[in-house]
Design goal:
By secondary structure, this protein is an alpha+beta fold. The chain has 4 helices and 5 strands. The strands form 2 sheets. It has a 3-stranded antiparallel beta sheet, with helices on one face. The N and C termini lie far apart (65 Å).
Length: 126
């Protein structure tokens, strides 16, 4: 939009406008390609930790950290980080499962509670 506004204001089509238009088209193509090839899967909360499940990684390892980076009410951008500090950025959409959207939002914003030492001791002795 800024490139079009610039052209509309300057009314001069020279090499700078051509370069800007080409860069905008290339960036748009890269963004579209990345979006189409983004990972599809399911983010699951088991009450203790987060787990990412996808077609290529079906078993999912629990205990990953989730950080909310941007919240647009119907879309949430999160970063999922495993124990090796490898990150996966996910765009969570309400339309994927609208009946569970509020549950997901509550789980994302609830503080992760670690089990107390007494509870661990009790569980180990039973």
């Amino acid at each position: 939009m800024l490139t079009l506004l610039w052209f509309n204001t300057a009314r001069v089509f020279d090499w700078r406008f051509g370069l800007a238009a080409a860069l905008v088209l290339i960036a748009g193509g890269v963004a579209w390609y990345s979006w189409k090839n983004s990972p599809n899967g399911q983010l699951a909360w088991d009450g203790q930790g987060w787990r990412w499940e996808s077609a290529s990684y079906q078993s999912g390892v629990a205990g990953q950290n989730v950080s909310v980076l941007a919240d647009f009410q119907r879309v949430i951008l999160v970063r999922l980080e495993n124990q090796a500090h490898a990150s996966l950025w996910l765009l969570l959409e309400q339309q994927a499962m609208p009946e569970r959207w509020m549950d997901l939002r509550r789980a994302l914003y609830s503080p992760c509670k670690q089990p107390s030492q007494a509870a661990l001791h009790t569980a180990a002795n039973t």
